[in-house]
Amino acid sequence: MDPILLARIQFGANISFHILFPTITIALGWALVFFKLRYRATQDLKWMDVYHFWVKIFALSFALGVVSGITMSFQFGTNWPGFMERVGNVAGPLLAYEVLTAFFLEAVFLGIMLFGFRKVPGWVHTLATVLVAGATTLSAFWIIVLNSWMHTPAGFEIRNGVVHATNWMEIIFNPSMPYRLTHMLLASGLTTAFLIAGLSAYRWLRDDRSPAVLAALRFGVGCAAILIPLQIFVGDMHGLNTLEHQPQKVAAMEGNWETGPAKPLILFALPDEATRSNRFEIGIPYGASLVLKHDPQGVVPGLNDFEGRHPPVAPVFFAFRIMIGVGLLMLAVSWVAAWWLWRRGDPHPWLARALVGMTFSGWLATLAGWYVTEIGRQPWLVTGVLRTSEAVSAVPAAMIAATLAAYLVVYVLLLAAYVATLFLLARKGAKPQSIETGPTTHPNAFVAAE
Amino acid sequence: MFDDPAVWLPVAFAALMGLSILIYVILDGYDLGVGILFPIARAEERDRMVASIGPFWDANETWLVLAVGLLLVAFPVAHGAILSALYLPVTVMLIALIMRGVAFEFRAKAEAGWKPTWDRVFFAGSLLTALSQGYMLGLYVMGLDRSLATVGFGLVTAVCVAAGYTLMGATWLIIKTDGDLQRRAVRRARVALVLTMIGFAVISVVTPLVSARIFDRWFSLPEFLFLSPLPLMALVLATVVWVVLANQPHARDRFAWVPFAGSAGIFTLAFFGLAYSFYPFIVPDRLTIYAAASAPESLIIILVGALVVVPVIVAYSAFSYWVFRGKATDLRYD
To answer: Which of A43, A162, A175, A267 has the highest local Cβ count within 10 Å?
Structure first.
């Protein structure tokens, strides 16, 4: 098999597995801060129950994110040695600042957050929770800066084939960074909101109807209902930014071959790169011109302008439709659920089942979105600067294939264990006092009991 | 000579990277060692062992990310060359680290019937991590060549490093536990100390024989006079640890910290010996830190950040160790 493709599949598998967990912990960290602050403001113990249930899921997700992230720091060099050799002068400082400012902060204060509840004053524990949430967000900031720079590089010059930084403000605030960062943080918020709503609905269906479960359910549904329209708006702006800087990616997303005016919005098609056309196309007339140019006669770029320099069309085309489809489903479910909870107070069983079904919808949309943007950047690793084929390593294909198989086995097992454990924790949560790890009465009861 | 950033920056980054590796080996060394010692504990004692490292392991492992990160950003060519040559043991280590890291969480949260399985995963992950790191050390000392002899040497160093981590783990448990578990930790510490010292002796004898350059560096005057205190001090430290271990566990835990500190000291001396032997090479006998370094303007930016942030990291890490001082209690997430 082609070593470039193998190296990409391996790196893609590892980064896809990794991204699942930060996507949860970035927003869940802030949700935990919110639960703690609600408790401090209201003295209502249900908020501590919510906190203690979700901090366990945070700990589990965080551990999976940390260990899968370590793999990444090694594979930058083993799979893409050309990447660091050519653009290391930009990528290096950004990665170093992520480790220095974010990784240690979150790791150390996570220890205090998870195990220090009885060992430090309440305000120190809340501060530790804020620092962990802040550090996960900071970590997302640095890595999104680097990723955005790979899409829309700025602030550099090339000397002897090597990229040298000339303006760090331009590098950090490169053209696609603000859109990508907002889009990703909202994706994290939505993933966590549907996770919280889904597991709470699962507990509700299993007759665990404590105030804490209802509070978490309302919190999850409320966040989802607020965040999804924001995400659709930001996603549209991100798309327009991509149209400006990477038109070939948008052409692949739209499945549009010929540049021209009055282009339809294609709902479904089978893009065929051999004949450079679509089969079974179903579209809305003038749709693409309206969406991308806000004008029914707007001229939309087509793939044939970029022959030999555009990404593989089918994966980008379909991943984009999966992301949009899941997004629209999120809009429908969260708004119906929010309306119902607002009018009736508690969920209808069918609504609860729908929310359980949507528990991991954020993962699906996030992965599909990342595939759109990352495959959409091909054949470039750094747009216009470095081709993916120039960065590939000399490690033999057989070696990559063997280790890829090992990683895949591990990831499938761990994913199964993770999902099973989440639902197990939800079932255990139904029985107060049964968990060895969290207080269900007053948090100070432990101090009294000692 | 040190007016030129192209000269002193690579040295500064090699020093920073070396420091990260040393801190990693000592810190993750003790928590991996605790994992390797899992079989000596009864099921209920294991929760206390995990509780003694639970708040720290994640930060400890971050020093590895920093070390590899510094190698990646400061010496990108060396990162590719070293890690590609060690591709298989690196993969084994990464998968072992993954399994050990998730076992922390799963053993406490998964279905009760699965706990013994996750305990075994925790033990196996810890042991495999130590063995693969030791194997990589051996291959690195051998100049990253793979032959029957170098692989054999790598297997020897694999056992030595695992023994060294066991020593760190056992001496950590002497500080953090009491009763029967502490007594067993003392016994394991003695065995591990002997194995560790044999390992260091073997590496010290073989290293100069592999490389003529290192041989000259060790056995020419006046370098020999600077170098000879290292093994002598290591022997003194090992003797002190041995004597103190003979009086452990002590009823009021007098000197209970000495074996851990002494073992960390032995690791530090061994580290300086290796660093001295290989400087200025980063890929043994092939690539120097000067040839492998990134552009000075980017390194300066990282260095400034590191000089500001690393003291802060040390400060809040110290705070965390202060918060969790004293004997480990049962594992609880509250």
So the answer is: A175
Q: Which residue has the tokens 């974010």?
A: A102
Domains and CATH numbers, chain B: 8-323 (1.20.1630)
Of A297, A308, A302, A321, the residue nearest A372 (C-alpha): A321
On chain B, the residues whose CB falls within 8 A of the CB of A99 are 62, 65-66, 69
Alpha helices in A116-176 (DSSP H): 122-151, 168-172
Residues within 8 A of B (CB atoms), A 202-261 only: none
Q: Find, among B322, B287, B87, the residue nearest to A400 by Cα.
A: B87
Q: Which residue of B lies nearest to A116 if distances are taken between CA atoms?
A: B334
Task: Tell me how far apart the alpha carbons of residues A348 and A185 are, in angstroms, rounded to a whole number.
Answer: 30
d(CA B277, CA B271): 10
Which residue in B has a C-alpha nearest to residue A105's C-alpha?
B313
Is residue A243 within 8 A of residue A152, CB to CB? The reply is no
Task: With a cut of 50, say whether residue A445 has pLDDT above it.
Answer: no
Summarised one tens digit per residue, pLDDT across range A244-290 is 999 999 889 988 888 888 888 888 988 888 888 888 888 888 888 88
Which of B137-141, B156-160, B201-205, B215-219 has the lowest average pLDDT? B215-219
Say which of A108, A417, A439 has its CB closest to residue B317.
A108
Assess contact for B26 and B168: CB atoms under 8 A.
yes
ipTM of this model?
0.88
What b-and-e string marks burial along B275-289, b requiring 16 or more CB atoms within 10 Å of the CB?
eebbeebbbbeebbb
* Residue A95 forms contact with B (CB below 8 Å): yes
pLDDT for the residue A371: 95
Sign of CA dihedral B121, B122, B123, B126: positive
Closest residue in A to B298 (Cα) is A89
Chain B CB within 8 Å of residue A407 CB:
yes
Give me the residues of B, 55-74, that contact A with CB < 8 A.
55-56, 58-59, 61-62, 64-66, 68-74
Alpha helices by DSSP H, chain B: 5-36, 43-53, 57-74, 76-85, 87-109, 115-141, 148-176, 179-210, 212-219, 223-227, 229-246, 258-278, 289-292, 296-323
Residues of A in contact with B109 (CB under 8 A): 56, 60, 421, 424-425, 437
Tell me the DSSP string of A152-167: S--SEEEETTEEEES-
The answer to whether the Cβ–Cβ distance between A73 and B99 falls below 8 Å is no
pLDDT (mean) for A89-94: 90
Query: Which residue type is seen at A337?
Result: A
Strands A380-382 and A265-272: unpaired
Measured between CB atoms, does B323 come within 8 Å of chain A?
yes
Residues 6+ apart with CB under 8 A from B280: B14, B288, B289, B290
Are the C-beta atoms of residues A264 and A286 closer than 8 Å to each other?
yes
